[in-house]
Design goal:
- The complex is a heterodimer of chains A (231) and B (355).
- In chain A, helix 2 (41-53) crosses helix 5.
- Chain A has one domain (5-34, 52-230): MetI-like (MetI-like fold, Orthogonal Bundle), CATH 1.10.3720.
- With 231 residues, chain A is mostly helical.
- Chain A contains twelve helices and no strands.
- In chain B, helix 3 packs across helix 4 and helix 4 (126-138) runs parallel beside helix 5.
- Chain B is α+β, with helices and mostly antiparallel strands and 355 residues long.
- Chain B has two domains: 16-222, P-loop containing nucleotide triphosphate hydrolases (Rossmann fold); 226-354, RNA polymerase II/Efflux pump adaptor protein, barrel-sandwich hybrid domain (OB fold (Dihydrolipoamide Acetyltransferase, E2P), Beta Barrel), CATH 2.40.50.100.
- In chain B, the strands form four sheets. Chain B has a six-stranded mixed β-sheet with strand order 5-6-7-1-8-9, with helices on both faces.
- Classes of the chains: A mainly alpha (231), B alpha+beta (355).
- Chain A binds chain B through residues 116, 118-119, 121-129, 132, 136-137, 140-141, and chain B through 36-38, 63-71, 73-75, 77-81, 90-91, 93-94, 136-137, 140.
């Protein structure tokens, strides 16, 4: 039973990076979702939820096309760096960000909108701008939701397969993640290695989630947990 | 989602308490929200202390955070994740740290909560939370204080101690305090001035005594606690005696009850309404005589209902009257349903309202 540590560290790096970027990216999006009264909000909500229901291969396929040398984005990137983003680690990060976006945005937005609106009114009457209200009231009271969102994003990125395969391919040290490695091992009938990697991922993800949920206890949003479990 | 609601009011509040009194749904909270700027009124002007907050024509609408008002919301809305001190300090972000500390110290002292500074709202009693909410909204020296039924959940003694502290604070600062309530007791206890609201309009104003003891309209009568309100017609006018005789419409055709009431400017035959408090009616089991009271009405007990330590008797005298008795009185008279009784009502216990 051999463990492909390279694949493990690569996956971990990807998950940490994606969780961090998504944390920053999802805050303003979630804020808008929670507090905007725009009539077309449902439209944006639907788009943002798409990655939950789309097969990862569909998402990966479009990403591959978008990042490839035939798309304007791909050509622009090619002229800038000399290569396209397809089959690179950066491409993988972009793909994972899109794929895991709802797992950050939805728990964040849910916890923002569950903050008692009276507290927001009180904050405003006390002279606070909406920015100050956000940082002093909304954000601290949403802490459990933020933790949940980051944990879900992290775990979800750790285990993704379809998008990685489509966008990243299978380049050792660059885009070969744990899940791809397992798939490879099974294809090659190396069940012992596959078992080792699978166990490693299982144990790791379980530990992370157990820690987060233990810290967060009962405050976590049960609905989002079931959503993640159904995935 | 929001239902149609028209708020159409005009008033000037001077420093001190102004009570907004009325049934729920009258628009009291909406009015406070408009003053605070939490709701946009689509017309009119709001100005406090010479500063214009809203002028629909002049297109002025100062945002909530710039109005410098103190607003204690109905369920206080203390920040649960901040300590008492941090809550109180919240409105002072623009000031240097030392000034903030000093101001908070003074306010916590004024409201007798200095010893609670480090606690979280969840660790406080109802009265303490109330004091924190007041200190928090007053710390920035607001130009007006809005209070939305702040004391309804508190017992009488706690309530009056808090009011005393607020009064003391306001003797120095002299700002208008708009106080929303639907409790008659609070109106009587607090009021220098009362505005009675119904369906988005002010239907009466004056001192609590003026508004509640001589209600000009039926809604106020119910609010003021008249258990008995009847349609009536002026039957005879006795200018010389200073009284009227009114005919109360009975449920069954033909029969009616005559009632002697105080004189008001009303022509014979005009329609009025009579309000009588259940506690102002005496009940006798045989016809009393030699009484000064002018109204003596026979009737029959329909039901006796105990509420807390008080018994309410429904008596059919052609019209139905509610009479309030003590438990002891019921015992002594051995009242039973179906028993014949006499009701005794003084002329001045009958409050006339125009229709």
């Amino acid at each position: 039973m051999s463990i492909n540590w390279q694949a493990f560290w690569l996956t971990l790096e990807l998950a940490v990076l994606v969780s961090a970027i998504l944390f920053v990216l999802a805050l303003p999006i979630a804020y808008w979702l929670a507090f905007s009264r725009a009539r077309w909000k449902f439209f944006i909500e639907a788009i943002l939820a798409l990655p939950i229901v789309l097969p990862p291969t569909v998402l990966g396929f479009y990403l591959l096309v978008a990042l490839g040398s035939r798309s304007p984005l791909g050509r622009w990137c090619l002229s800038l760096t000399g290569h396209t983003l397809a089959f690179t680690f950066t491409g993988l990060v972009i793909g994972s960000i899109l794929y895991s976006l709802p797992f950050s945005v939805q728990p964040f937005a849910a916890s923002f909108s569950s903050v008692d609106p009276k507290l927001l009114s009180a904050s405003a009457t006390l002279g606070a701008s909406s920015r100050r209200t956000f940082f002093r009231v909304v954000l601290p009271l949403s802490l459990p939701g933020l933790v949940t969102g980051v944990a879900l994003t992290f775990a979800h990125t750790m285990g993704e397969f379809g998008v990685v395969l489509m966008v990243g391919g299978n380049i050792p040290g660059v885009t070969r993640t744990v899940s791809i490695d397992i798939y490879d091992q099974v294809e090659a009938a190396n069940y012992a290695s596959a078992n080792g990697m699978a166990l490693l991922l299982l144990a790791f993800c379980f530990t992370v989630l157990a820690i987060v949920y233990g810290v967060n206890r009962k405050k976590v949003n049960q609905r989002l947990l079931t959503m993640a479990a159904a995935k | 989602m929001e239902r149609e609601f028209t708020l159409d009011v005009e008033f000037v509040a001077s420093p001190g308490f102004t009570i907004l009194f009325g049934p729920s749904g009258a628009g009291k909270t909406t009015l406070l929200d408009c003053v605070a700027g939490l709701r946009a009124a689509d017309g009119g002007t709001i100005s406090v202390d010479g500063r214009v907050f809203l002028d629909a024509n002049g297109k002025v609408n100062v945002p909530v955070s710039r109005r410098n008002i103190g607003y204690v919301l109905q369920d206080l809305a203390l920040f649960p994740h901040l300590s008492v001190e941090q809550n109180a300090e919240y409105g002072l972000a623009h000031l240097p740290r030392r000034t903030r500390k000093e101001r908070v110290e003074v306010l916590l002292h004024d409201f007798r909560i200095s010893h609670l500074g480090k606690r979280r709202p969840s660790e406080l009693s109802g009265g303490e939370r109330q004091r924190v909410a007041l200190a928090r909204s007053l710390v920035s020296d607001p130009c007006v204080l809005l209070l939305d039924e702040p004391l309804t959940a508190l017992d009488g003694a706690t309530k009056s101690r808090i009011i005393d502290d607020l009064r003391r604070w306001n003797q120095v600062h002299r700002i208008p305090i708009l106080y929303v309530t639907h409790s008659r007791e609070e109106v009587i206890a607090l009021g220098e001035r009362v505005l009675v609201m119904e369906q988005g309009r002010i239907i009466a104003q004056g001192t609590p005594h003026e508004v509640l003891t001589a209600p000009a309209q039926e809604t106020i009568a119910r609010l003021a606690g008249f258990e008995n309100v009847f349609d009536a017609q002026v039957w005879l006018v006795h200018e010389d005696r200073g009284t009227l005789t009114c005919r109360l419409a009975a449920q069954e055709s033909g029969s009616f009850v005559l009632l002697e009431t105080p004189l008001i400017r009303a022509a014979s035959g005009s329609f009025v309404r009579v309000g009588i408090r259940a506690g102002d009616i005496l009940l006798a089991i045989s016809r009393p005589d030699g009484l000064s009271a002018r109204n003596l009405i026979p009737g029959r007990v329909l039901s006796l209902e105990r509420r807390d330590m008080i018994v309410f008797a429904r008596v059919d005298c052609g019209i139905e009257m509610m009479v309030q008795l003590t438990l002891a009185a019921r015992e002594a008279l051995q009242l039973k349903e179906g028993q014949g009784v006499w009701l005794v009502i003084k002329t001045h216990s009958c409050h006339l309202m125009r229709r």
